[in-house]
Amino acid sequence: MKIDILSVVPGLLDSPFAHSIMKKAREKGLLEVNVINLRDYTTYARAQVDDYAFGGGAGMVMMIEPLVNAIESLQKNTHYDEVIFLTPDGETFNQSMANQLSLKNNLLMICGHYKGIDQRFRDHFVTREISIGDYVLSGGELGAAVLVDAIGRLIPGVLNDETSALTDSFQDGLLAPPVYTRPEAFRGWTVPEVLLSGNHKLIENWRHEQSLKRTAEKRPDLLNDDML
Ligand code: ADE
């Protein structure tokens, strides 16, 4: 999968894909991430990419021309399955969207800044608008990093069996159960005995019960009647 990210602050994305699982995914050739500087596509003086909002009001608006120059240039080499604009007024990102997007070949993510981007670009080029939560960030870059991580780890071959995404929270609509590792006892705090029993059926049942309990306690909104 290839993910291109268009940004006015590309340096913000130097690190998120350079470590751990995203690094391995790139090294294995399963994920390609390119961060593209929008300022390379402006024809305005001093690499300007934003201007005052028509009608007045505080804050600058990202201009349509640099965005269109950039996307049309990138589209010469790549057909994008989705052009995603990261914005607090988009649909809220969740695991099911990550699953869907992990099946695509090419994604373009557009990071907004200032007061937003010219609506005409949203109307004519963006295919999906996504928010990572109900709060406002200074730009879309951290949102794009969240999406790339959540999507990238679902690409077949990125995770091995031990880190398999199938047992993650949300993957079956429930939160993940508690986990323990050595030592068996620490300061008198012991590990639930069932986990040491070697009985896989019992362990699986226990984990499912714990998932239900945890979800009911922390996120009752995720439960529906047929899960109980
Ligand atoms: N840009 C600013 N705030 C954002 C958010 N909550 N999600 C995605 N992109 C954003």
The gyration radius over C-alpha positions equals: 22 Å
Hetero groups in this structure are:
adenine
**Beta-strand content estimate:** 15-25%
Query: How would the global form be characterised?
Result: elongated
Strand order of the largest sheet: 2-1-6-5-7
SSE order? EHEEEHEHEHEHEEH
The CATH topology label of the largest domain is Alpha/beta knot
Q: How widely separated are the two ends?
A: 37 Å
Query: Helicity, in percent?
Result: 25-40%
Q: Largest sheet, if any? A: 5 strands, parallel
At the fourth CATH level, what is the homologous superfamily of the largest domain? SPOUT methyltransferase, trefoil knot domain
Low-confidence stretches: none
Helical/strand content category = alpha/beta
Number of helices: 6
CATH class of the largest domain: Alpha Beta
Summarize the structure.
This protein has 228 residues and is an alpha/beta fold.
How would you sum up this structure, described in words?
There is one protein chain. This protein is α/β, with parallel strands linked by helices and about 230 residues long. The chain folds into 2 domains: about 1-150, SPOUT methyltransferase, trefoil knot domain (Alpha/beta knot, 3-Layer(aba) Sandwich); about 165-225, Trp Operon Repressor, Chain A, CATH 1.10.1270.20. About 30% of the residues lie in helices and about 20% in strands. It contains 6 helices and 9 strands; from the N terminus they run E-H-E-E-E-H-E-H-E-H-E-H-E-E-H. The chain has helices spanning about 20-25, 65-75, 95-100, 120-125, 140-150, 200-220, and strands at about 1-5, 30-35, 50, 60, 80-90, 105-110, 130, 185, 190. The strands form 3 sheets. Strands 2-1-6-5-7 form a 5-stranded parallel β-sheet. The protein has a two-stranded antiparallel sheet with strand order 3-4. Helix 1 (about 20-25) links the parallel strand 1 (about 1-5) and strand 2. The longest helix is centred in the last third of the chain and has 19 residues, at about 200-220. It is elongated and about 70 Å long. It starts with a strand and ends in a 10-residue tail after the last helix. The model has no long low-confidence stretch (mean pLDDT about 95). The structure holds adenine (ADE). Adenine binds near residues 88 and 135.
